């Protein structure tokens, strides 16, 4: 290997290491681009309806989004706070009733099988109050651990806030001048491939727009199904819980699980069987969404295969962490376009077999 080749290889390895160390910020930049693309779609719609300059259209769009978010917060947050306060007051009583119900069921099963009452009462399971209270050293250790945990949580929240601020700021800057940033990205490509890169960027933007439409349809379906289920079960805060389920549906796997917690807790305040019914209804809805609604919508919108979706979620979660799980689907959409256009169409389809010399 010659010296220029060795130097090029070293530079390539160094660039790869730098990109690997900056992978979290690169993912945040990709999230900003996705958010900017959504803002650009909204701004373009405003400009088509009301002819105005782009900065004014962006300001009008942001004002409308801020007003909508403010109204939703004013309508939904106070009931959530009231119900959560009531839940904290009644949670021990509800947990005791749920435990008593479980013990009664086990007692009936034991009596039916063995003819004896094999399950103790709650009083027999309970411990003496003196044994529950910790001593001074244990209490001090617990307080110290709690303070350390709070400091770590504050640090994580600060880092998350900085990342969110970066995403929002970058998205706004791109949304103001999208064509200028597009040209900068194209200039980073070799000159002979710039026209083709422009076409590929257009295809990536169309695929991401189709994905956002598909996510909107899937979330709307989850919102309607959860609202109907909670209304039939007589659970309070139907609109708030259904809207929470629709919004958290954007986060794969984790979001649906998080959206189940609060309606189950609210239902537990009325009756334990309602909490179990809510859990069953949400399991049915999420399976319907995961195996019927989303695959059908995504296959129609972006031709995204279910196996590729699952593999992307696992791979990007391992590489990027929780943020990779959140951005797995848009990353998979873009990678599908890049693989199809660059690797398959521009490389493999033009790869000819070399004939041996006679």
From TrEMBL:
Organism from which the protein derives: Parasynechococcus marenigrum (strain WH8102)
One GO cellular component, as annotated: membrane
Subcellular location: Membrane
Family of the protein in this entry: Belongs to the autoinducer-2 exporter (AI-2E) (TC 2.A.86) family.
Pfam families given in the database record: AI-2E_transport
Membrane spanning stretches: 26-46, 58-81, 147-176, 220-251, 271-292, 329-348
Membrane topology: Multi-pass membrane protein
UniProt protein name: AI-2E family transporter
Keywords, sorted A to Z: Membrane, Transmembrane, Transmembrane helix
